[in-house]
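Bit of a strange request maybe. I'm writing a small parser for structure token strings and I need a real example to test against, not something I typed by hand. Could someone generate the tokens for this chain?
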Amino acid sequence: MLVDCRINDNSATEGGGIYCSFSSSPTLLRCQILDNDAQTGGGMYCYSDSSPVLTACNVSDNTAIEWQSGEGAGLYCMRSSPALTNCIVAGNQAGFAGGGGMSCVMASSPTLINCSLSTNSSVAEGGGLRCSGSSSPTLMNCILWGDEPDEVFAPGLLPSVNYSDIKGGYPGIGNISADPLFRNPARSDFHLTGGSPCIDTGSSEGVPATDFEGDPRPWGHGYDMGADEYTEVSISGAAPLMRPAVHKLGAVCPNPFNPSAMIALELSQPARIRLAIYDFAGAQVRTLEEGVRESGSHGVRWDGKNDVGGVVASGAYVIRLEVDGVSQTRVALLLK
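Reply from user aminoacidic:
Good idea to test on real output. This should exercise your parser:
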């Protein structure tokens, strides 16, 4: 059992942060799985009847993009069915095989209760959740919002989704499609704010007694959707399950794009930055920005051209932000 652990900045071919295989089922409580990278399963890789249990965990900013076939940036499940409760899965980025937040293949049926999936992305389908090969996850009281290019991709069996907020809507009981009004998703703050349609609209079935910070459920007239139970202020005294304010490479809009795209940046303080475009072979295509930027939100436009003004070919490109020796990446897809 892992409690209050931080697993970050690791890399592997499979399972950059955690690798589980052949009936491995660890229990993780209040753990943070951050900034790991792998071809498959950037944050966690679950294989062959591995069913880890994650409670109040944060799986964020993991990648599976350095290889074009990258899949399951947050979590990858093959014939495995992990259980996630009160978890945040955010800012993970997958390649052409899809599944930015989570990828489920070959009869994987994970259970997600009161989880928030947001700001994940993939070059292919399933920015939030991708299901294939008779996989059928169960989602209750979850939020999937702001994932790119879509929230759920399931060409075969449909996941069982109830009392959840899914952008664009999804079949099931009690589902809605409305902005959850997160406090500040650009800074990885996925608390609900007053007036959120996710407040008091969840189900009481199988709901945990507390939220991701230890605040009691329900608080108010009913149970909330997502990892946070809205209380106006945290009453538990627990440390928030979110990343501290940092420099952040935000979303690319639109994505896919043609002929240009806007790249969002969030700087917590003035800093010298370098923002550049690379192809998947690692060759630099364009330097967009290099110098000191003030703190706050910024937007930088890429017009689809290289450093000498030539229009680049259709395909996937890696956008890399470097600040103080730390780099972040996103994938942008140019379609002509």
